[in-house]
Amino acid sequence: MVKFNDAGLIPAIVQDADTGTVLTLAYMNQGALEKTIEGPDVWFFSRSRNELWHKGETSGNYLKVVSVVEDCDADAILVKVNPTGPACHTGETSCFLDHANPDTGANETALGPGVLAELGAVIADRKRNPKEGSYTTSLFADGRARIAQKVIEEAGEASIAGLGDDPQRAAEELGDLFYHCLVLMEDAEIDPDLVWAELRARRK
To answer: Can you give the CATH number for the domain in which 77 is found?
Structure first.
């Protein structure tokens, strides 16, 4: 019998059944594990959204279950799968890129999306767990209309900065714009995977 942690979760390592490549690591609760064992797709528990997560439901990149086994201590799960597309939200095959080898270009590929995912998780936490003195918390308290207004303001400032001759200033303003867009997405309950899927679709 598997051993869930105090939060009722267990780490799940996902591996490509054909190549042996480790694709991602996420968490399952009892419900996600049961759904995964039933198949045909992998389910996780999203800690940021506090709900079951059908991997691939928005992106179309499903993980088709081949086998599910527990480790020797029964406190971790190994799921072997046949992926129907990239396992990582960045569009990469695997979440585990070779950051140690600069020649692979992995850092450049992972930097932007990785930072956005990290920031998005912090923003989601601020919504669920308001923190005194937090600017993000204050935005959620002011309401969605104010958040949307900030997106418009930041878009204008980023556009003006982009017309100037100071790349650093433009980068700062674009960072503000991206941040406020993520806040709006969280408040409006827009799954970031919907946006990433839309961008990937446009590449095609």
So the answer is: 3.10.20.810
In order of 158, 160, 170, the CA distances from 167 in angstroms are 11, 12, 5
Considering the domain architecture, whether residues 63 and 117 belong to the same structural domain is answered as: no
Complete edge-to-edge strand list for the sheet that includes strand 63-70: 22-28, 10-16, 77-83, 63-70
Report in angstroms the alpha-carbon separations of 135 from 53, 62, 127, 128. Answer: 29, 36, 11, 14
Contact by Cβ (8 Å): 177, 158 = yes
Residue 46 placed within a domain: yes
* Domain region containing 41: 10-83
Tens of pLDDT along 91-146?
778 887 654 444 443 433 444 556 677 677 788 888 888 888 899 999 999 999 99
